[in-house]
Structure formats: structure tokens, C-alpha cells
Amino acid sequence: MGSIRLGRLPDSKPWRRVVAHIAEGESAAVVAGATSRAAVQGLRRGEWDPGIARTVFLLARIALAARDTDFAGALRDLDIRVPHEPGLFDLTAALAGALQAWHAAHPGRRTDLGEMGALAAAESLAALVGDHTAGLFPTGTEVRRSVRDFSTLNGFAALGHDYFARFVRRFLLYHLGRELSQHVGGAGRFADHGAHAAFVADLDAHCREAAVIVRVFAGQWYSKARFEHGITERQAQGFAAKCLEKLRGELARRGAAGG
Q1: Which of 41, 66, 108, 163 has its Cα between 20 and 30 A from that of 48?
Q2: Which of 28, 30, 43, 35 is nearest to 204 (CA)?
């Protein structure tokens, strides 16, 4: 993981519009919406990216595994190699390792979008489990209890919201990262690095607000899939595709409305 590449924005009319919005001091919402429209093909590819589907599948099954009396064994059945009572670092590192191994075994399916999804998943687990447990180093029991909370309708709704907010933030910064840095100092959009950081924080908040569009859907999907047929990778792919379709539309709508 970690090989995501950044370059200058393409020289096309939609991307020139993105650059103009940045230079003219438009809000994070407007820049995000313009970026989403310019990168629409990338988000569409993400809807059926097998790496994203694998990541969402594992997140859903990790939540379900926490209901098993042998949490570690249930995780190992998913090729998530953890010790007997996994702590938070054990779990996030093992998830990252499982996804890296999957990508290595399927080199033809490895994409930057899939890597973004994998990084967002590890971030999301670390943040949400960390928020729900006491202390810097939660015990294995505390970690399992927290992860088990994600296996309910409301719990998976929260996990899905957080995951897709982090994914879309990574997607936008993948395209914007280097361009934003070109506008720091001098007569640029950002007077200094603090102003640049504040804009990125606004972008993060915007992504989190936009991702609310998938929250209820995520909980309903998880509850229905779990009780009706069990959660399969194919179902996870359809779920991820629908979430990204919803997000693409929401980002464009918010951008057009100026946030």
C-alpha cells in the first residue's frame, strides 16, 4: 500500500475550471463539486472496482466476526491474521495486510482506487474503535465489544458513513493534492500553510457531510444482507457501487449549490 501517485491536474476544460475555482477562492464545497464532475470517470470506475468491493466485504465481515465467540478464529477465516485476543493495532495492521495480500494475489485488479479504499478502511476502524474504547491501548475484549457494535443496523450505518467519507476525501485529494500546494504563498489562494491546512479541514468536513447520503442506506443494506443471505463479496460490490453513485451525485449537487 501507499503507492498512490499525484501529478498536475490534466489540461482539459473541466480541470481548468477546478484550477480557476481554487485560484478564485471558492469554497471547499465548490472545489469538491467541480473536482467530482471533472473526475467523474474515476468515481464511476470505483463503483465496480474489485479492490473496493473486497475492502467493503472485509469491513462488513469483521463486524460480523465480532459476534463469534472465537473472534480471532473468525478473522483468520477471512485471511485476517491476528493473535488470540487482537488489540486495535493488531486488527488494523492485519486488515491492511490481508488487503495487501489480496492485491498481490490479483495484480491485474490492483488500482489506485482500491488502495485508497484499503487505506480508508484501516483509518476508519482505528478511529471508530479508538473512539469507543477507553485509553490508548484498549484490551482485546474492549476491541471486540466495540467492533461488535458495528454489526447492528445503526452501527454499520456509522461505519459505512465514516468509511465512505474517508474514501471520498482521499479521492479528492488524490486529484487536488499537488495543485493546492501550488497556491500557497505569494499571490496564491492560501496566504500560508495554515490557510492551506484550514482549506483541507473544510474539505474533510464537506466530505463527511456529503457522505451522510449513504448512512441510512448502509445500515439497511447490512441488516438485510446479514439476515437474508449472509454477506457475500458480490453483495458488497453492489453495495459499494450504489454508495459511490450516491456520493458522486451528492458531491456534484453540493458543488453546484455552493455548499
Answers
A1: 66
A2: 28
Give 184's strand partners.
190
Please give the Cα distance from 99 to 87 (Å, whole number): 19
H/E stretch holding 95 reads: helix 88-105
β-pair partners for 190: 184
Phi, psi dihedral angles at 184 (to 5 degrees) = -100, 130
At how many degrees (to 10) do helices 112-132 and 50-65 cross?
Answer: 20
Q: Where are the domains of the chain?
A: 13-250
Matching residue, cell 490479483: 106
What whole-number distance in Å separates Cα of residue 86 and Cα of residue 33? 40
DSSP secondary structure letter of residue 243: H
The rounded distance, in Å, linking the Cα atoms of 242 and 239 is: 5
For the entire predicted model, the pTM comes to: 0.88
Contact 38, 14 (CB under 8 A): yes
Q: How many residues does the chain have?
A: 259
Compute the 3-state secondary structure of the chain and give helix, strand, coil in percent, each to the nearest 5: 75, 0, 25
- What is the full per-residue pLDDT of the chain (259 aa) written as tens digits? 444 444 444 445 677 788 888 888 888 888 887 877 777 667 777 888 999 999 999 999 999 999 999 999 999 999 999 999 999 999 999 999 999 999 999 888 888 889 999 999 999 999 999 888 866 678 889 999 999 999 999 999 999 999 999 999 998 888 887 788 888 887 778 888 898 898 889 889 988 999 999 999 999 999 999 887 789 999 999 999 999 999 988 887 876 775 4
By the 10 Å C-beta count (0-12 exposed, 13-18 middle, 19+ buried), 201 is classed as exposed
